[in-house]
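WARN no homologs supplied; continuing
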Amino acid sequence: MKPASSLSSAVLFDHQALRDQFPALKQTIGDHPLCYLDTAATSQKPQAVIDAMTEYYQLNNANVHRAAHQLSARATQQYESVRLQVAEFIHAQRQDEIIFTHGTTESINMVAYGLTSQIKPNDVILIDTAAHHANIVPWQELAKRTGAVIKPIPLTTNAQLDITAFDQLLALKPKVVTLCHVSNALGTLNPVNELVAKAKAVGALTLVDGAQAIAHLPVDVQLIDCDFYVFSGHKMYGPTGVGILYGRYTDLDKLTPMLTGGEMIKTVSFEQTEFGALPNRLEAGTPAIAEVIGLGAAIHFLQQLPREQILAHEQQLLRYLQQQLQQLGAIELYGIANDKHSGDKHCADGQRHNIGAVAFNLQGEHHQDVGILLDQQAVAVRCGHHCAMPLMTSLNLGGCCRASIGIYTNKQDVDQFIHALNTVKELLL
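OK structure emitted
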């Protein structure tokens, strides 16, 4: 293989100091340092997030909104301050447009269930073929309840969303268009600004799954102009068990609550129940308080970083990873685009079609075998269908391996991975 070019020339921050804040990355497995290339599944957590959650349980453990005592007041203040943090982080107009959920899956389910009364028989719902199952199945269930019709948006031969086919499907005047911002399986980046504008022009409600984008790209829901945007905390260096549903206030307020009871109640009698105002109306029961506080710590952590420099570092590293895989030989790569079409400023140079992840197979070998042998060398990647079976079917694949990076990933990780994969190649081929 060719010697690596330097990855540090354009990087002006102390990356090692950043990496050192993630305690999980300091461990060794067997005789090898951990090489974590599964950030797209879940990111590792910085010490600041761990500390924030520990502090809540040690000092401020109380239910929110419910009591007059000081512990509850402190917990409530911390919890609600995160709502404002999130609103500012994604440029929402109002903090009550931010709904706390347990993750992206619940967020999408809340929208799909909440729209039930607004969907009629034969209404069309367009779904990105590269979507995660969590952005497919809730819409299928909505179609079962209402008689709506699901139409997948096809992909091009290089696994990009087919803009021409999308334009043709818009002639059906869909009621809902749901898209992924970045494919979790392939890392392909959709020009969501362009796609949302086209969908809105025919009167469609739009939802964007931002689970794979939120940790890598600056997200401005006003610029995207979508009706709903959803993501999870654990993909952006926060804890599991917390997610975000952003929606325009008027659209959120029309949703039928999926869950009822507890926090979302205003008044109850045996004759009738009155729900509270947003955001409480869509937040039933006791929330994941520690997890929300952990998400706030993750956002603060990200906001203290030079994000443009980190994005440049990630993209440089991703291209290096792609190049090294290509040079290794006997490797099949999926979803790698080299044309310059995009409606997103972050990929207008033709270099940001892929964000955060590379999908591949070792020719002729089962992806699971490759993953197991990599694990024996302390290299963590994901293998399988990546909760994207329709996408795998469209690629004529039973599954594939995925190497995904985060802000903490360095060149040594990539080199260790490539060396390990070469060992696997020599063993199997």
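The chain has two domains: 15-46+306-428, 51-302.
OK
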